[in-house]
Amino acid sequence: MSISSPDTCISHNNNNLPNLSNKSNGMRGNKYNCNNSGTPRTRLERLLRERELRKFNKSLNDGETELLNNDSFSPDSFEAFSWFNDEESLETISANRNSTDGCERQDSRASRERLLVVANRLPVSAVRRGVDSWHLEISVGGLVSALLGVKEFETRWIGWAGVNVPDEIGQRALIKALAEKRCIPVFLDEEIVHQYYNGYCNNILWPLFHYLGLPQEDRLATTRSFQSQFDAYKKANQMFAEVVKEHYVEGDVVWCHDYHLMFLPKCLKERNRKMKVGWFLHTPFPSSEIHRTLPSRLELLRSVLAADLVGFHTYDYARHFVSACTRILGLEGTPEGVEDQGRLTRVAAFPIGIDSDRFIRALELPQVQDHMKELKERFAGRKVMLGVDRLDMIKGIPQKILAFEKFLEENPNWRDKVVLLQIAVPTRTDVPEYQKLTSQVHEIVGRINGRFGTLTAVPIHHLDRSLDFHALCALYAVTDVALVTSLRDGMNLVSYEFVACQASKKGVLILSEFAGAAQSLGAGAILVNPWNVTEVASSIGYALNMPADEREKRHHHNFVHVTTHTSQEWAATFVSELNDTIVEAQLRTRQIPPPLPIEVAVDRYAKSNNRLLILGFNATLTEPVDTLGRKGSQIKEMEPKLRPDLQEPLRKLCDDPKTTIVVLSGSDRSVLDDNFGDYSMWLAAENGMFLRATKGDWMTTMPENLNMEWVDSVKHVFEYFTERTPRSHFELRETSLIWNYKYADVEFGRLQARDLLQHLWTGPISNASLDVVQGSRSIEVRSVGVTKGAAIDRILGEIVHNKGMKEPIDYVLCIGHFLAKDEDIYTFFEPELPSEVPAPVRSHVTPPVRTSVSKLSTSRSLSREDRLKKHRPMPTIERSKSYHVNTDVFQSRVVDRMSLQEGSSVLDLQGDNYFSCSVARKRSNARYLLGSSDDAVKLLTELTNSWINGMNTDGSTMEGN
Ligand SMILES: O=P(O)(O)OC[C@H]1O[C@H](O[C@H]2O[C@H](CO)[C@@H](O)[C@H](O)[C@H]2O)[C@H](O)[C@@H](O)[C@@H]1O
Ligand SMILES: O=c1ccn([C@@H]2O[C@H](COP(=O)(O)OP(=O)(O)O)[C@@H](O)[C@H]2O)c(=O)[nH]1
């Protein structure tokens, strides 16, 4: 048994690898990751090599970067930002270089790759101090902290400065102030911010992506309707795209961030297809069942898919995204990502990290040491528990406090020995849900402090404010137990920062299993379900009482992770994979046939005298099928039907005496009869095993000894899988069986198909002489050797004889959405090249040049003996209709098909008069591609028009063929 897969192997052209920096030259072909030739061939080889080069360059650059960081330090402009103190400056994340965006200075890092980071929020928020004067404050949030750690690239940051600037003077002054920090503002007015940021982003997407569901649509308030908010969202994304366009320099990597900018990849690619675009989501991506509740679910997914690379914090989120694309968009999910018409969007997990060195170094600073001393004195004799969160419902702050209350309730001996410090940074304060949360938390804290507090001490210190970097580091360092109880959290960097600051104390981390960080710090932390208040309360007890050696082991595990999986590594890996994705895409594109030059095909058609059109049926002459199967209950109605808009052109074309049309399909005879019975053409059913001129009877060419004993066993297997796979069905044809799961749940269908194949491969029929042909959503079993390419030989012989052809066929157009196995029909008409001549390289610019075919090679046709086989009765699998079958005629005519009566050749495809064309299958051996059956309609209509116009001018008559 042979199994053929629809996938085509991709060959790699090593000349197209990205240029590596000079430093890399000495490292080609090293022992770690290259093949013998020293040039990486596979994606993994390339990525491993890139990683090695990064490490190598980093070691060379480290000394230099230190110097540059100090050199670029500009404390004056950031005196108010504790995060940008003597060693922390935005300058350190971006190189200085003259460029189009007004960022001046040049240094030795100018050759670094330019990275445009596009995020809703800039790392600084602007506060207006006068008509043309601005004060910049560092923005709070994990996205900003992580990206501030990215130093490897020459970075520009494009985003919203968190403020409405309606006047030009203010805008100009802000642009200037931000340019010093390598930041470029996007100006959003109040109304847009309200609808886009407060509305669509934070009231709809944010809760939905964190499994909190969609809010009720308020019909009375237009500002709270999905549609108006989504419109504003799209508009805001367009505005970001405009700014990117303005600052983009060819070769830049554009990295879009987060749920605010899901529409951006599409906007960017529409403006410039060549732009390298990555998109990273900082929140969870929910199960497809959650995403499908979103009214704009399709548009958002499609827009994100326009990116070259899509990244998530965890494999789970990536899996959910791929699953949403397969289930909601009906696209193909592969281990690499999501495939749509041969174009791949790579999807992968890139867990973010922090700049751990920055925290470790900060602990040595005198001001941090002072802070730590103060805190230790303040809380002497008490264990310190810490929570640091934006005041957001996803952070589970009420749940955390209630668990702490339960702990105090159950452990009276701890009441005066432990304190919970909760830093709750105000965030998104214009959104009503956040306002409600603030009051709720205040109320709970007040109640608990009232219950367990004394005149001198309270158990909970709750701060509605942010801390500066040094205060935060000091707090992390003196903490005994950190408590992270997010109900859902993309990653949660607070947990990483805590670990980085605990080298000496080795405190315990209690971490929600619903934070992305649980996947990386799970082994060292105590994982909890934040909804289970009892579990969290007992974990607090366990953590406070944990023996030193266990704390040490747990801490060590986490510390190693946090210090190796840094934000620098995260960004470098993402950008490196993005670059590689582009290389991979170029290699793929080279495999895709160029679009059919319809004008040329029509022109050649008009100029030839004896034309042959071979047309596939399904997905070529039929309407595209709704692959999602939402109309699955009407499967019967979805049996293939000729497109209504093709009926007229096809009928006219059939009347052209110089044209022979053959519909060659896998479908059975009844389907072709129903659709084409009253056209004047040839029908070849079941991949050419049956043939009929519509004026005559069906003939068969099935070999006499065709073994069909396997049919019952395969039918039995197909029945079994059909019963167990809702909305799948199978078709019993006379020479093959097809199990089709295109209307079934995609993932389940694929799993079932895998099982089915496994069974066919290894089960009782594994030794039968069968071909198992995999379609994208089907499995077909046929006798060995049954293909369209094998059949065309006999079909052609019969037609030539039947029509008494005197002139050779001088034009062939063969179009279809054929399975890989049947693509041998395309090669059938190709001239045979001398073996020493390399295969022609596919080009997108010039149509392929072909030699004229003077004679069909016998090597591609059946042997004389085969063709002379005696006729035999039709095998019966199951006959729903009885046909008159004249096998004798079909078989014997094949003999003469090699030459015309006068002895000249059947085919004379002078010049490029052969057009093989795949419809909507980009991985194809055809010479050309038509995007969809719509294009097939266009082509056939133009051929018809060309004939009718030609006929009118030369006055020829219309005769049937
Ligand atoms: O910009 P804001 O609306 O004030 O919100 C702050 C940020 O919150 C979210 O952060 C997420 O990113 C972190 C880093 O990847 C991750 O650890 C955390 O779990 C996420 O919640 C949001 O995604 C950012 O865009 C905001 O800037
Ligand atoms: O007073 C504070 C409290 C927190 N953070 C920072 O805010 C970020 C929070 O990131 P996380 O990933 O934990 O959650 P997010 O707020 O992004 O959802 C961390 O880097 C904190 O250091 C801060 O800058 N000041």
From TrEMBL:
<dbReference type="Pfam" id="PF00982">
    <property type="entry name" value="Glyco_transf_20"/>
</dbReference>
<dbReference type="InterPro" id="IPR036412">
    <property type="entry name" value="HAD-like_sf"/>
</dbReference>
<protein>
    <recommendedName>
        <fullName>alpha,alpha-trehalose-phosphate synthase (UDP-forming)</fullName>
        <ecNumber>2.4.1.15</ecNumber>
    </recommendedName>
</protein>
<feature type="region of interest" description="Disordered">
    <location>
        <begin position="1"/>
        <end position="40"/>
    </location>
</feature>
<feature type="compositionally biased region" description="Polar residues">
    <location>
        <begin position="1"/>
        <end position="12"/>
    </location>
</feature>
<keyword id="KW-0808">Transferase</keyword>
<dbReference type="GO" id="GO:0003825">
    <property type="term" value="F:alpha,alpha-trehalose-phosphate synthase (UDP-forming) activity"/>
</dbReference>
<dbReference type="GO" id="GO:0004805">
    <property type="term" value="F:trehalose-phosphatase activity"/>
</dbReference>
<keyword id="KW-0328">Glycosyltransferase</keyword>
<comment type="similarity">
    <text>In the N-terminal section; belongs to the glycosyltransferase 20 family.</text>
</comment>
<feature type="compositionally biased region" description="Low complexity">
    <location>
        <begin position="849"/>
        <end position="861"/>
    </location>
</feature>
<dbReference type="GO" id="GO:0005829">
    <property type="term" value="C:cytosol"/>
</dbReference>
<dbReference type="InterPro" id="IPR023214">
    <property type="entry name" value="HAD_sf"/>
</dbReference>
<dbReference type="Pfam" id="PF02358">
    <property type="entry name" value="Trehalose_PPase"/>
</dbReference>
<comment type="similarity">
    <text>In the C-terminal section; belongs to the trehalose phosphatase family.</text>
</comment>
<dbReference type="InterPro" id="IPR012766">
    <property type="entry name" value="Trehalose_OtsA"/>
</dbReference>
<feature type="compositionally biased region" description="Low complexity">
    <location>
        <begin position="13"/>
        <end position="25"/>
    </location>
</feature>
<feature type="region of interest" description="Disordered">
    <location>
        <begin position="840"/>
        <end position="870"/>
    </location>
</feature>
<dbReference type="InterPro" id="IPR003337">
    <property type="entry name" value="Trehalose_PPase"/>
</dbReference>
<dbReference type="InterPro" id="IPR001830">
    <property type="entry name" value="Glyco_trans_20"/>
</dbReference>
<dbReference type="GO" id="GO:0005992">
    <property type="term" value="P:trehalose biosynthetic process"/>
</dbReference>
